[in-house]
Specification:
Shape: globular
CATH superfamily: HUPs
CATH architecture: 3-Layer(aba) Sandwich
Largest sheet: 5 strands, parallel
CATH topology: Rossmann fold
Number of strands: 5
Helix content: 40-55%
Order of helices and strands: EHEHEHEHEHH
Number of helices: 6
Bound molecules: adenosine-5'-diphosphate
Number of domains: 1
Oligomer: single chain
Length: 165
């Protein structure tokens, strides 16, 4: 059984992430979508909220598990006996960082292979921060996030605006 892990902030999950999730789920027996918690990075949604949003938009895909982790990715990778790390690439700007991460992970664990899936046309210019910025100014995010979580994302961004964080 081939298990892949797709790690990221997913703050919040977008249609770009969902495209990668669907394609990776077809390539592997099991796909773990992992909300990586970075305590030094401020976020709009709590790890539990992010997990919940991803679970809701992937509920029809049977071979997906959603989890969160606040440690080193490679420790989680080993603990879950995973085979592959999946990353999405939007542009050359993603590449440098992702290339470095892939090399570091391979250095920490020789078996940790990273595979990259290219973003689709819309995903190429889509990021969680862009979605949050548009929502912050009451813009239309309907093409960028799955419809079933659009209201939750708007509410989360509104909450952030009110608390002024
Ligand atoms: P961001 O906060 O920039 O949206 P994440 O940390 O949540 O990024 O991204 C997790 C993974 O998903 C990374 O490999 C990233 O390159 C990829 N990714 C992010 N947005 C997209 C997108 N729109 N299309 C394809 N892949 C994406």
């Amino acid at each position: 059984m081939r298990t892949a892990i797709y790690p990221g902030s997913f703050d919040p999950v977008t249609c770009g992430h969902l495209d990668i999730i669907k394609r990776a789920a077809r390539l592997f027996d099991k796909l773990i979508v992992l909300v990586s918690v970075n305590p030094t990075k401020s976020s709009c949604f709590t790890p539990n909220e992010r997990v919940d949003l991803i679970k809701r938009v992937t509920r029809n895909i049977s071979n997906i598990e959603v989890d969160s982790y606040d440690g080193l990715l490679i420790d989680y990778f080993n603990a879950r006996n995973a085979d592959v790390i999946v990353k999405g690439l939007r542009a050359m700007s993603d590449f440098e960082y992702e290339f470095q991460m892939a090399l570091v992970n391979k250095d920490l664990c020789y078996d940790a292979e990273t595979i990259f899936l290219c973003a689709d046309a819309v995903g190429t210019f889509l990021s969680s921060s862009m979605v949050k910025q548009i929502a912050m100014f009451d813009g239309d995010i309907s093409s960028y996030v799955p419809s079933e979580i659009e209201a939750d994302i708007k509410n989360g961004v509104k909450r952030l605006r009110q608390t002024g964080e």
